[in-house]
Amino acid sequence: MKENRICRLFGIRYPIIQAGMVWCSGWKLAAAVSAKGGLGIIGAGSMYPEVLRHHIKSLKAATDKPFAVNVPLLYPDIEQHMAVIEEEGVPIVFTSAGNPASWTSWLKERGIIVVHVVPNVKLALKCEQRGVDAVVCEGFEAGGHNGKDEITSMCLIPQVADALQIPVIAAGGIGDGRAIAAALALGADGVQIGSRFAATAESSAHPNFKKSILEADDSATVLCMKNVVPVRLIKNEFYKKISEAETRCASPDEIRAILGKRRAKAGIFEGDLTEGELEIGQISGLIQDIPTAAELFDRLLESYQNTVAGLPDRL
Amino acid sequence: MKENRICRLFGIRYPIIQAGMVWCSGWKLAAAVSAKGGLGIIGAGSMYPEVLRHHIKSLKAATDKPFAVNVPLLYPDIEQHMAVIEEEGVPIVFTSAGNPASWTSWLKERGIIVVHVVPNVKLALKCEQRGVDAVVCEGFEAGGHNGKDEITSMCLIPQVADALQIPVIAAGGIGDGRAIAAALALGADGVQIGSRFAATAESSAHPNFKKSILEADDSATVLCMKNVVPVRLIKNEFYKKISEAETRCASPDEIRAILGKRRAKAGIFEGDLTEGELEIGQISGLIQDIPTAAELFDRLLESYQNTVAGLPDRL
Fold first, then answer.
1. Which residues in chain A are contacts of B14 at CB distance < 8 A?
2. CA angle at residue B164 from A208 to A173, to 5 degrees?
3. Of A193, A237, A289, A313, which one has the greatest count of Cβ atoms within 10 A?
4. What confidence score (pLDDT) does residue A3 get?
């Protein structure tokens, strides 16, 4: 895919990006994906600045291939994170959960490629105007934090692709090569895959959390806390408390009090399936095993190829 | 596509089905689609039994190609509708909004092909067990009435395709040939297209309603009234009343009182964009013109072909 715009932009072989995910995507997962010719991403959202530095250094020791760091822009230690990114020579930064205007110029001035995550066409256009190099358009089905517009990948990808000149990466609902083919058909230049990589051997998630992904069916997740911080998660006991509060129109403050702190860490990293916040995408229902990242990567390539070979040239 | 299972099941040339839609899909639209080699559907949900008979007779006078009638199973005049369907020799019936067990045997005994609309894998499996010939899996992005599980087309299509032996028709978010290719890549045998056909010359919707589809952007619709009757519609003044009531946790009875009667007719057929219920899909943001059904059909075929031709054989 020499002519692929995402491959050219990032200097990678395959337009497959492993999403930055809190408590899942440390250096081991990102290095394994980058070594295979995709783009591995370290998720800085769950790391203190010096932990992030350790992960970047470990990744660079494991592979010399391109990689990226994902930085949620609402993170409190954002300046320190950005300083670590500059000092460690991170070539690509994915920013999310914030305004693309706030850090794009700073990063670009340092020669860093900038990608921003968007949930709608309006923000995608704003990214392009602000000089972002590519966007990830993230559909309603994606796990974790999400937008309020509830636009699905099937609707979002073609509309963002039509509106922008810069490359478009599709995210949300992509669990196998069939969905990669679908995303490219809809106009994406590449794909970002989260949940499927969360359930790999190199993912730093707790075994309990990985098991909960395998056990999830098509209806297992829901986008909730829309008035506080919209997030897609598995409907566990913690969710039931949130749902009960939402059903009786509890105030945002009360929802925040129920949410409290450290729930994502408790659920994803420590394996508390009852009280933890189990952030994962709707495509979990399709995920049935825990391969290595390399095995999964090969499977994605093969399944893409089989899918395209099976499509009729004309109807 | 001689080997396509949907084409073989229905006896049609192209696996493109025009959705049955209240106040949009009378005999003119369905006949135009069937004449082009797709499957046109008369939407019985907005018709009295004798009106339905008139539409079936008119369609049969216009084309001898296969066609179908869509019957929401919760409709009050259901027995009379089914009697008309039998008397007029309708070859294919799409049932929706109800239990597939209730009418499948009756229809099958009369030699009628039965398709049921499903929002999740569980109901899809139940349909297969009950002897339904094919399912329409309808994603969260689809317009009008919808399921409560909020499963998007990207996630629903592959999971239903994996679970069933019978053919699967994808619906929700399909507005051009790119999305047809995506749906087939995800495992669908064919597609059902609603919103895009609602904005054609032959659609019986009011010009005001068609104009509101053209003006809609990616964020213009929302799935609301989830505790009463989940429906995706354009966020107009009527919706704002519903939303305000939902925000203060109004009871289902109060929501029903605000909804009242005849809102879909007022909005879609009479063109009241303020107080009407403007049922349409999220893909409206992509729709920019009002072609004839035949023009649109040719465009879908060409755009599918261009899309598949543009997909790399391997990544």
1. 315
2. 50
3. A193
4. 84
What CATH number labels B5-204+289-310?
3.20.20.70
What average pLDDT score do residues B251-268 get? 96
Cβ-based neighbour number of residue B252 at 10 Å: 11
User: How far apart are alpha carbons B59 and B293 in whole angstroms?
Assistant: 15
pLDDT digits (tens, 9 = 90+) for B8-52: 999 999 999 999 999 999 999 999 999 999 999 999 999 999 999
Written as six digits, the tokens of B82 are 């089914």
The string of DSSP letters for A183-208 reads HHHTT-SEEEE-HHHHTSTT--S-HH
Q: How far apart are CA B84 and CA B90, in angstroms?
A: 9
- Name the one residue in this structure whose structure tokens are 């010096």: A50
Q: Name the residue with tokens 């950005």.
A: A82
d(CA B139, CA A259): 30
Residues A175, A193 contacting (CB under 8 angstroms): yes
pLDDT tens track for A115-143: 999 999 999 999 999 999 999 999 999 99
**Is residue A181 a contact partner of residue B185, using CB atoms and an 8 Å limit?**
yes
Residue A247: its chain B contacts at CB < 8 A? Answer: 249
Q: Flag whether residue A245 sits within 8 Å of chain B, measured between CB atoms.
A: no
Q: Tell me the C-alpha to C-alpha distance, in Å, between residue B163 and each of A182, A199, B224.
A: 19, 21, 29
User: Token pair of A75, please?
Assistant: 């993170």
CA B214, distance to chain mean position in Å, is 19
Which residue, among A154, A159, A235, would best test binding to B if mutated, counting the most B CBs under 10 Å from its CB? A154
In order of B142, B145, B211, B297, the CA distances from B128 in angstroms are 22, 22, 39, 30
What crossing angle do the helices spanning A293-310 and A27-35 adopt, rounded to 10°?
A: 50
3-class DSSP state of A11: coil
Rounded to whole angstroms, the Cα distance separating B64 from B61 reads: 7
Q: How far apart, in Å, do the first and last CA atoms of chain A sit? A: 26
Cα(first)–Cα(last) distance of chain B, in Å?
Answer: 26
Give residue for tokens 């508390």.
A272
Contact A180 B315 (CB under 8 A): yes
Q: Does any CB of chain B come closer than 8 Å to the CB of residue A165?
A: no
Third-level CATH fold of A5-204+288-310: TIM Barrel (3.20.20)
Residue of B122, B151, B313 lying closest to A282 (CB–CB): B151
d(CA B293, CA B100): 30
**ipTM (interface pTM):** 0.97
HEC string for chain B: CCCCHHHHHHCCCCCEEECCCCCCCCHHHHHHHHHCCCEEEEEHHHCCHHHHHHHHHHHHHHCCCCEEEEEECCCCCHHHHHHHHHHCCCCEEEEECCCCCCCHHHHHHCCCEEEEEECCHHHHHHHHHCCCCEEEEECCCCCEECCCCCCCHHHHHHHHHHHCCCCEEEECCCCCHHHHHHHHHCCCCEEEECHHHHCCCCCCCCHHHHHHHHHCCCCCEEEECCCCCCEEEECCHHHHHHHHHHHCCCCHHHHHHHHCCCHHHHHHHCCCCCCCCCECCHHHHHCCCCCCHHHHHHHHHHHHHHHHHHCCCCC
Interface-testing mutation among A155, A195, A247, with chain B (most B C-beta atoms within 10 A): A155
Q: Where are the domains of chain A?
A: 5-204+288-310, 207-283
